[in-house]
Every structure is written in structure tokens, then in C-alpha cells.
Target: Lipoprotein
Amino acid sequence: MKSNYCNSIFLVLTLISSIVQCGCLYSYKKELSTRKEKKKWSENYCCNDSNKTNCSFSNEESFEYTYTTSASIGISFFNSVSAQVGESVTQGKSFKKTFNYDVVPGTCKYVDVTVEKAKLQVLGFCSYWYTFGMYMPEYAILEYTKDVATFDMIEIPNNKNPGSIGKVVDSGKVNSSKAS
Model:
């Protein structure tokens, strides 16, 4: 019950600040920290050890993950200046790549993707109806995904052992595209 009450108060305060806000100007942004986020990007593609030749998967597959920007502090200010900050920060990103799998008998291959998430402080000034034209400093803290991700194609033994350690057989970079 207390959580709903706090959420309601937060929503009302956010709406009030939006209503009384006359205009905001973006000043600059500062990267506070970064972290890497790794995910399994594909299924396992396996080749039985009874095969005499490599297994090739002729159906190229395209994998996609979508990442969006999220503000944790200063949501109203961020919404006002997001167009000024730039699309590379404010727009959701999608990573796509088509892989061809040539799998050796007795092994499996899969792909991992690693994106870099950055925590950013956006600073600027807003004018409110009650400040009579004076600009007050404002900021927003947000997290966004950088434009380039890396991928690793991993080869593991096809022994159905979930703890199998694999080796990287291919790696590279993937550029983002605008998320749909």
C-alpha cells in the first residue's frame, strides 16, 4: 500500500513539474560510468560426431536485441531536452547480424553479444513560470547503450554437458541500427 502511495506522489510531482516548466536548455553531458552486458545471442548449432564432414547451416539467421534509454533522475528535464542531447544517446538501439555456421562433427557453436551501457549525467537549465524568466539548473541521470557491440562465436563439445568450456572461433563488432 505504501509503495502505491509513493508512486502516486512521484507521478503527481512529475506532472506538476512538467506543467510549470516553461522551457529547458541543454548545456552539456558527462559520462559517469560504463558497464558491459553480455547475453547469449543465438541457439546452439550442433553437428553429431557420427558425421564425416562439417555440418553447414544454409539457413542464415538474423538475431536481434533491442535496447532503450532510461532516465532514473530528472525525467521531466530529460524529456524536455532529449532532442537537443542527440539521437545516439536518446534513441533505442537494435543490433542485428547474420551468421553462417560451419560446425565440426562432435561440436556445437553459438554466439554471445556484449553491449556497453553508459551512465550519463545531462546538465542544463529550465525556466519555470514561478521564476519569472530566470533559469534554474537541472540535471538528469540516464543509462543508454553505446552504438557498437561485440560478438564472439563460441565452439563447445557436443556432449550435452552444460558446464562445457568453449573456445572463441570468431569475433567482431556489430553497429547498431535504430530500434523499431
Summary: The chain is about 20% helix and 60% strand.
